[in-house]
Amino acid sequence: MRKMSDVVFVSAVRTPMGSFGGTLKDMIVYNLGSFPAREALKRANVNGDEVDEAIIGNCRQAGNHVNPGRTVALKAGCALNVPGFTINKACPAGMKAVSMAVQQIVMEQDNIVLCGGMESMSTIPYLLKGARFGGFKMGDRTLEDGWGDSFDPIAKVSMGMTAENVADKYGIKREDMDAYAVRSHKLADQARTNGWFDGEITPVTVPATRKKPEFQFAVDESIKAETSVEKLAKLRTAFKKDGKVTAGNACGLTDGSAMLVAMTREEADKRGVKPLFSVVDFTQAAVDGTFMGEGPGIAIPKVLKRAGMEIGDIDLFEINEAFASQVLGNVAMMNLDMDNLNVHGGAIALGHPTGCSGARIIVTLYYALKRLGKEMGVASICGGGGATMAVIIKRES
Questions:
Q1: Which of 61, 86, 135, 360 is the most exposed place for a label (fewest CB within 10 A)?
Q2: From the candidates 59, 78, 356, 382, which is the catalytic residue?
Q3: Any bridge partners for residue 7, and if so which?
Q4: What percent of the chain has pLDDT over 90?
Q5: Residue 135 confidence (pLDDT)
């Protein structure tokens, strides 16, 4: 059996994030995922018939046809004999895919794995439950929004209410949540303007329509550089009359995908490709879904303990921004230094395509470490229902 340090990631790439109902709204998820998957294989100097397995996160699967994780691999040029599967672990799905790639290589099941995540939030369908078996003989039926799947049936709360619960538990003020949201947009805009995202983004070819010719979509479109605390303060609360969570201090709903290629260190040497980073350790945990956002505050100390490390050993933290209250709650739980957190902005600005985000924050973390000349990073993500994960990465080039 190999060691975890024998596994390296040799490519890491994502699409630009498309706004909800925006540029990518009509693109089925496996077509969307094929762009970074193809680019990840190209950067890794790997042909489609050399991939041992594809492991891809995708949560909102209704209407995405059979096994979209394998479908995206085939769309990206993998051979028909390449196996692949799809992970649904709510928001940590993409991170789970990355960790399973490491596991498969450590266990000597695979040598080269395509992994990552993808989500088209814009194509989540409406549902007509009960219609199949005589549902329309008499009476009416309700057309349900597939977004209802974001409700936690155990905790019996929406994701927005979990953010309200975290805000109340940790005494987080509305103005602090709004200020954090502005920070996310400003940092993401700075990264976009200065070209700091360029290395991690690959363009998406948007097909021609009757109104527009085919074009290359290459820039995140959900970042609101002009936002301010004053503007956000005018927004109504979204989930509770006297609450604090608004559309402005919650993650955006976007369409996107992030893909990586993992292989043995020996394989990378043989191919002449530089390892970008290795995984020091990873872990998963779970919390009460009523306080879903507490997850990273549990998972990060757990993974650091596994690795024999402390908070001070980590140069940068990337915590998915499902809600500003959630991130600020995590900061309070671990006493984190905000200067080392989400330095290129986060999901409040870039959006949170659920199956993609766990992989996307690893990609963004690596490029932030590279730009700043840092070595050690932690990425963590909470998830609907209380699932959570964290991973420690070490930059190698």
A1: 135
A2: 382
A3: 264
A4: 91
A5: 67
Q: How far apart are CA 169 and CA 246, in angstroms?
A: 18
Catalytic residue among 91, 115, 251, 356: 91
* Residue 382 annotated among the catalytic residues of the structure: yes
CA angle 175, 329, 288 (to 5 degrees): 130
pLDDT value of residue 146: 87
In the annotation, is 59 catalytic? Answer: no
pLDDT value of residue 79: 98
184 vs 181: CA distance, rounded Å: 5
DSSP symbol at 83: -
Which candidate in 115, 185, 352, 356 is catalytic?
352
pLDDT score of 214: 96
Active site residue 251: no
Specify the DSSP element, H or E, that contains 188: helix 174-193
Q: How many residues does the chain have?
A: 397
Mark the ranges of the chain whose per-residue pLDDT is less than 70: 135, 138
Which domains does the chain possess? 277-395 (3.40.47.10)
At 299 the pLDDT is 99
| Long-range CB contacts for residues 365-368, cutoff 8 Å, separation at least 24 | 365/316, 365/318, 365/393, 366/9, 366/12, 366/200, 366/276, 366/277, 366/393, 366/395, 367/12, 367/196, 367/197, 367/199, 367/200, 368/196, 368/316, 368/318, 368/343, 368/344
Predicted pLDDT at 281? 99
